[in-house]
């Protein structure tokens, strides 16, 4: 699959991004010169088989892992860019700020703290993103925002329940509220319905779609065709590259031409 020119515009742009792991004495390249542009207001599904590198890509987009250093022969200016700034090209402080405030991340396995209530789990994310000197003056507002978000995801009567007292769907809703508490520009979700039954998974997917209708930019990483069908734009991860696979309208996939690189948005 040949590369198109890397994308140059978008809210979040990956340009010629690769990620290689050392395994069994050999190099395993999971992502290979990948290009992707996410625009404000997008509802994008990244579809791929298990083991295709979807989680690796998500971690790179979220600032949790670094891409390979730019190698000779790759397009100049490669990297991950948020609003035009290279996410991995600056200081650790700037990278931390990006992770805490610009990106909201929803994990498949929730990653809630069992000793904390639903409200405390959400509030903790706000606390981590707030400078220590500002927290005393902003804590009350953050707590109100956390409670409001839990109410919006249908857990207004579960604020003080710990994760062990919540169902899988309720835990995922807490995770969504936590990801939203710092008002991120982009909400990333890794297999958001993967641990849920069909009915609960549909409810959680509907919640994500409601957030998108309210203006939230979404990137959903999934192997589930049902999740992909709900997105407005779908790309498939194959051979370490993203291929524009389909456009979606009213929840129905519209077949598109195979072989168009996702970074067509140059």
TrEMBL record:
GO cellular component, one term: plasma membrane
Molecular function (Gene Ontology), one example: ATP hydrolysis activity
One Pfam family, short name: ABC_tran
Protein's UniProt keywords contain Transport: yes
Record flagged with keyword Isomerase: no
Record-annotated ABC transporter domain positions: 12-264
Keywords carried by this UniProt record: ATP-binding, Nucleotide-binding, Transport
Source species, domain of life: Bacteria
Matching PROSITE patterns: ABC_TRANSPORTER_1, ABC_TRANSPORTER_2
UniProt family annotation: Belongs to the ABC transporter superfamily.
Name used for this protein in its record: Putative ABC transporter ATP-binding protein
């Amino acid at each position: 699959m040949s590369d198109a020119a890397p994308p140059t515009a978008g809210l979040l742009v990956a340009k010629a991004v690769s990620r290689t792991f050392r395994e069994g004495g050999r190099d395993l390249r999971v992502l290979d010169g990948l290009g992707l542009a996410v625009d404000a207001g997008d509802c994008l599904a990244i579809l791929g088989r298990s083991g295709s590198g979807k989680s690796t890509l998500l971690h790179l987009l979220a600032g949790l892992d670094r891409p390979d250093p730019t190698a000779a022969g790759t397009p100049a200016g490669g990297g991950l860019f948020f609003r035009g700034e290279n996410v991995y090209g600056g200081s650790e402080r700037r990278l931390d700020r990006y992770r805490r405030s610009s990106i909201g991340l929803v994990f498949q396995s929730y990653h809630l703290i069992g000793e904390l209530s639903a409200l405390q789990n959400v509030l903790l994310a706000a606390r981590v993103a707030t400078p220590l000197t500002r927290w005393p003056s902003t804590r009350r507002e953050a707590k109100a925002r956390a409670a409001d978000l839990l109410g919006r995801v249908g857990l207004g009567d579960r604020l003080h329940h710990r994760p062990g007292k919540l169902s899988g769907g309720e835990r995922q809703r807490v995770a969504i509220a936590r990801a939203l508490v710092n008002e991120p520009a982009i909400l990333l979700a890794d297999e958001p319905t993967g641990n849920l039954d069909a009915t609960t998974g549909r409810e959680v997917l509907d919640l994500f779609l409601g957030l998108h209708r309210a203006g939230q930019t979404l990137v959903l990483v999934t192997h589930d065709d049902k999740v992909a069908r709900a997105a407005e734009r779908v790309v498939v991860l194959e051979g370490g590259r993203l291929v524009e696979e389909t456009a979606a309208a009213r929840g129905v996939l519209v077949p598109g031409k195979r072989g168009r690189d996702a970074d067509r948005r140059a």
